What does this fold into?
Amino acid sequence: MSFALDPPSRGRRGMGRALLGDPMGLAGLVIVAAFVAMALLAPCIAPYDPVALDVKAKFVAPSAAHWAGTDHLGRDLLSRIIWGARLALGIAITSVGIAGAIGLVLGLVAGYGPRWLDSLLVLVFDSLSSLPMIFFALAVITVLGPGTATLILVIVLVSFPAYARLIRTQTLTLAGADFILAERAMGAGAGRIIFRHLLPNVVGPLVILICMDIPVIIMLEAGLSYLNLGVKPPSPSWGNILAEGYTSLRQAPHVVIVAGIPLVLATLGFTFLGEGLRDVLDPRGAGRRWT
Amino acid sequence: MTPVLDLRHVDVDLPLGGFLTRAGLPILRDVNLSVGRGESVALVGESGSGKTTLARAVMGLQAVTAGEVHFDGTAIAGRDGFSRLRRDAAMMFQDATASLSPRLTVGYLVTEPFRIHRQPLPDPARMARDLLATVGLPPAIADRYPHELSGGQARRVGVARALALRPRLVIADEPTAGLDVSVQAEVLNLMADLRRDMGLAYLIITHNLALVRHVADRIVVLYLGRVVEEGPTAQVFAAPAHPYTASLVAAEPKPDPRKRRADLAIRGEMPSVLRRPAGCEFHTRCPLARDLCRATAPDLRPTTSGRLARCHFADHHQEQGDHHALEN
It folds into this structure.
């Protein structure tokens, strides 16, 4: 017989099944999976080159040749949206991954470490989150110049304090729990306690928060790109498509509409998935609803 | 022979968390307590008397404000001292389920002491199985998670984990809390067997006097963070020297309710540690308090029967038979 020595929490399968059994979670999962597939398979499924110009065919309404129509330079909108998914998800997942990792480590250190370090870190979290996001983004972009890397940096800086604070609160609650005292009484060091015993118990809510944050970041990216402060124009960002479509709103309203749809869907998908995860991620509730 | 555990004049203050002040709640005051090799000592007292704080102070979970804790003849100090203490002494918490890390399997949890203290662990699965067998649990339990265990199983897992490194001392905080009477008996018998087989010493913290009678060689009674009486279990039960002990014994449920002694019942609540009564700290609730008790604090001193009691009239009560609990 063998038991898992480093068990990756229990019953991944049971959890997956619970998520599938929840209509909202299932819908979220399907939408998110569709976007991820779209992003990964962009080169294969996009019918046209997203940046190829065809000025003769500008502002073509949705048709058999161009399912989503074309924009003011005759670029195929469906292809641009598909490639835009790659950009949007790439930026959102990268920045949220980095921010999540920073938030997790700093939150654990603040919550379990010495008091002075906690006070110092909380000061940093509070200072960063007290800055108004758009103005902070404008300032950083002005200094570093627009671009994908700057965008990711801005998103990381504005989002990690919330993650760190969540983890810190969770850690503080658990630090006095019996099982942590028991570990200390057995002689476990801070590293073991933080990474083996605290981390697995605080990471669940972070995953949920991150999932709910991805649409916010997609919107932020679109917003900054719309303001010409994010992804540089030829790249097919959803924000760029919207910005360009806005100028020709009267002539060709389909541009804004088709660029808006994926934004709405992505937001809904990640939110549903986050809420579904929230319901199933508690180990004690795995496989059964509390209702 | 040096005792396994020896507390000398231990004070513990719980910090109040003030910014500039170091003031704290004076939970324990001048506690002397020793546990000999293979001895089983019970620490009894009401909720709030400082029992659990004392256990935590021994394990270094709570800083000792004054006094010394000696383990195996040496004073515990510094990282190395605590590391050694935590290897050779184990603590079982009151809530057995909550003291198991929820995301890890029982198999991992019972073998964790080996990993913490870098002891050789060639075959973890086998070791887990052996440890579980020692406490009478089937091997399949190794794959379970703590929330999948019953209270009795979680308690046994706690015992298995405490025994993993063959400690010399086990501190058990309410080892029967939350268990059915039949399971309580099983756990107590298990602890007694292990003590005989492994030469363990126990410090058992409880307010369950039936348990004390069953497992303890010696009993130490704590009131408001001070030891008020100490002596061999049978003697203390037969003739308590301190009125507090007498009332605890008298309050114990008896098969025959007519034999309960209402005159020994203590009234009211335990005073706050922030406003310790002047004189004898028990005088506010003592059915026998006199002027002397309100004025002068008694010391913990030997009675004529060779026990220790913190009462001006310990010998007097005993002679007069005032405090004799009824035959058990």
Confidence is low (pLDDT under 50) at residues 321-328 of chain B.
